[in-house]
What we know:
Blueprint: H1 3-63, E1 72-74, H2 81-88, E2 93-95, H3 98-104, E3 115-118, E4 123-132, E5 135-139, H4 140-159, H5 163-169, H6 182-185
Antiparallel strand pairs: 1-2, 2-3, 3-4, 4-5
Amino acid sequence: MTNEEYGITAIKLIFTIIILSVVIAGIVFIVKRLWQDTSIINIETDLLYIKAKCKIIHDKNIIDKNEQLLGENITEYLENEEINEIISQSDKWYRLSQEDLETIGIGNLKSEDGYLINYEENDIIYVKGIEENEEIYYKLSDLEEQREKQKVEEQEDAEKPSVNQEASEQPPEEQPSSEATPAESGI
C-alpha cells in the first residue's frame, strides 16, 4: 500500500467512527427517553391505584365512623417548600407510611418516596414530583389537568385548517382573459 492509500483508509475510518458515534448517541437518547416515559407511566399508575384505594377507605369512613383513615395527619411538610405551600391550603393531608402502603396492597413502593393523600379532595401528592414537559408536578390532579389542556390544544390544532389547505379550498378568482370570446369580438 502506498502512503496515499493509507491516508484514504484513515479518513474512511474516521468517518466511520463519527457516523457510528452519532448513531449510538441517537440510540442512547431514544432509549433514555423511552425509559423516562415508562417510569412516569409507572409512577402515575401507582398514584392512581393509591388514590382509588384511599377513595374506598374514605367512603367506608363516611359510612362507618369507626373506620380509620390511613396515614398520619400533617399540617406542614418541611422537606419541600412547594409541597408545604400546597399542604398549608388545607389541613386534611395525610402522610402514608410503609405500613399504610402495605395495607393498601402496594408494599413494593417505598414510603420514603413520599405519598401524601387528601381524602376530602381525593387528591394525592408525590413528593419526588413528576417531570413532564420541563415542568415538575407534585399533585396528581395538576398533572391530569395539564394533560387534559394539552389534549384539548392538540384537538384544536388538528381541527384548524392549515394556511395551505385554506388557500387550496378557496375557489380560484376569475381573471379576465386576454383573448376575447366570440361574442365580444363581434363574430
